[in-house]
């Protein structure tokens, strides 16, 4: 077992050698990731089931498939992304050329979270490799089977001198953060995000923080009138709340906002859909994840300890401590100052808050920390416009949930307490690259007025040149301008 | 504001830095006006949402990326280009639609005061404020929660700014400095190269600029020729008594004067002076000074000089200079003078810096289509032109979906069949999808 310092030294050396800069190396590593995931599919499902009780469909959809797709996308585009991008230069500098060249940062640290322990580790890794960096991956210890899988399997497929997995808990994190990295990519809670950024500040290390926040779902039933559309809405809400890791997802729906006129109808639709998805007895359903560990189980249970909150439960509420299972639970109007409405829930409890009319949802959201995503189900173009222009969030999705995660062409990241920086698709490549500006000039075409000793002529020349007033410049040179 | 008060600005810069009018016009006023013009011309285009393709797996849908202001931003500026480094970031923040506080540097008090006065007079004070002051005021500002902090200055304070930002998870742009090297190859037009080096060193606030050439690397064979040409051109620019030349800025204050003078104190260093070296502590002036082959471990080679001293380090082969550069931290800029194509390629490939310029120095600052920023110790983030707009914007991803196209395979109860179909769908193979639907999948 190498020491941390030894590992880092090896990674620095590897980066310095320039091997990770080549297209061939990057593509090989990306292919290896695809191979790793394909050849170990069953092992991955087993680890994800062990850590979180995920069904293989959920595991494929949210983890295995995501990584495969990501790596394939980068594989087909990396060469294009690596190419220098020409920049147009003003005529004043003719015949100079300008371009922007992406360079890897160097040795990067990726810290993954436990709720999507495979994709939140490997998806950033795909970006870091595409950009040509060497990497230390620190999987979450809260998902030990997956962490172990990654630590054992990655060295068998990827270049061990360039990509290392270091397992461990808070003490390992602390040690890692004391070292100098060229970039840190962190997915997790705002609390730890602060610790990471503070440590990074010591070394002026740039960071990307993918954090979380309460993601609201605005449900405008006044514009969604047909029964089929309502059914689809209900399916997408249930799918977007309990589908991803039983609500333990930064992009999952945290709470819902609905016009009080439609509250009863909504609750009924949700109940029917939950039953359809998870059966009469969700505890027996294999299609829903469990809570990751005792600590989070207790945390979630304590959210409903407050009698006023408990009284607002209108569906579900039962728990199984041994199985770490909490039933899909809906609450109607819990007190707005209760913990369940002020903290990110990260679990299978869905508060539904009623408003006098749905326009109030904008004010409601704006008076709270900016979310990672706002979901809005509406066909009202005016409301869509208002949501877009009068709220701020990492992203907005209309009439569906979670799908923005699948879009390689869209940046995925937060704002304010939900983080900064972004990735997915080319944004992954960019987030792990330094964009170096390169300007080339020749020795001809000297601009005399650049040089001292200064005089009025030179001053006038510079003023005209800066205004790109080329005619003026010519006139001045010809002695025709004062 | 810039047009109306050009003279006042020139005067303030002269009071703070003895900056020659020409430099103030070129580097501060001229560049700022240009920045404004570019922003005014391009703003509509920058603000337009960008369409984004959405994958077939969520057909029918459409996507776009919308630029939004971040909110309340803090711009902390530096003393060497007090107008440029205050207003240029401000232009970006304004273009992106933010509200802002500007904290100019107290080390350039006349400029700080003039900025406060002019901004109040010309700009919308309900959204743009100036807070003057020093450490106390800056610390108080840093305790507040900002949506973005833009800092120009040195690495030590940069760390303090980022640490304060971390408490509120505030993203930052740090424009710092570094030792910007100039590699001078043989077989070039030495006169033109020397003039460009001089313009980028002493012509930029007398070397007190983050992108000034800090030191030169050249071969042992070429060094003397270079020194001679530099001497000749320096004399033609600043005359025989450069300490008295009106075309050079002074050292900003006695603290910095002492700091720069100290770099020459070392015996092993002072003996290497081949030109200049004169100091006038009363007027805070140090003459353009060239040194040849100072020890690599001397203070002048370890710290960013930020002054009118230019050490020349000689190497055996010109390629060795890249190793010297790489042995230090990554600078804000690196320069190379050569006609050798292969050397250019090697330079671009192996030297990492914020920006590179071949056959000139510092000019990339004026190009609004190139991102201006550092890497590693020289900073993070970039600006100028659209990069300024982007630095102060949040790019919000938006997905529009319809109610049609709802795939049952997304939803529980999960089955093996759904898994197979999902794989085919995500894998993008139409044939795989058809087969899976027909139940004849190979998977």
From TrEMBL, chain A:
GO biological process: aldehyde metabolic process; response to abscisic acid; response to water deprivation
Keywords: NAD, Oxidoreductase
Keyword Mitochondrion: no
Catalytic activity: an aldehyde + NAD(+) + H2O = a carboxylate + NADH + 2 H(+)
InterPro entries linked to this entry: Ald_DH/histidinol_DH, Ald_DH_C, Ald_DH_N, Aldehyde_DH_dom, Aldehyde_DH_NAD(P)
Record: active site: 210, 250
GO cellular component terms listed in the entry, alphabetical order: cytoplasm
Keyword NAD annotated: yes
GO molecular function: aldehyde dehydrogenase (NAD+) activity
Domain Aldehyde dehydrogenase residue range list: 12-438
Record-linked PANTHER family: ALDEHYDE DEHYDROGENASE, ALDEHYDE DEHYDROGENASE FAMILY 3 MEMBER F1
Family assignment from sequence similarity: Belongs to the aldehyde dehydrogenase family.
Protein name listed in UniProt: Aldehyde dehydrogenase
Organism: Rhizophora mucronata (Asiatic mangrove)
TrEMBL record, chain B:
Membrane-spanning intervals of the chain: 420-440
GO biological process: aldehyde metabolic process; response to abscisic acid; response to water deprivation
Catalysed reactions, semicolon-separated: an aldehyde + NAD(+) + H2O = a carboxylate + NADH + 2 H(+)
InterPro entries listed in its UniProt record: Ald_DH/histidinol_DH, Ald_DH_C, Ald_DH_N, Aldehyde_DH_dom, Aldehyde_DH_NAD(P)
Example of a GO cellular component annotation carried by this entry: cytoplasm
Family annotation (SUPFAM superfamilies): ALDH-like
Keywords attached to this entry: Membrane, NAD, Oxidoreductase, Transmembrane, Transmembrane helix
Pfam families in UniProt: Aldedh
GO molecular function, a single term: aldehyde dehydrogenase (NAD+) activity
Active site: 175, 210
Domain Aldehyde dehydrogenase: 2-398
Family to which the UniProt record says this protein belongs: Belongs to the aldehyde dehydrogenase family.
PANTHER family, per the entry: ALDEHYDE DEHYDROGENASE (PTHR43570), ALDEHYDE DEHYDROGENASE TYPE III, ISOFORM Q (PTHR43570:SF16)
Protein name: Aldehyde dehydrogenase
Species of origin: Rhizophora mucronata
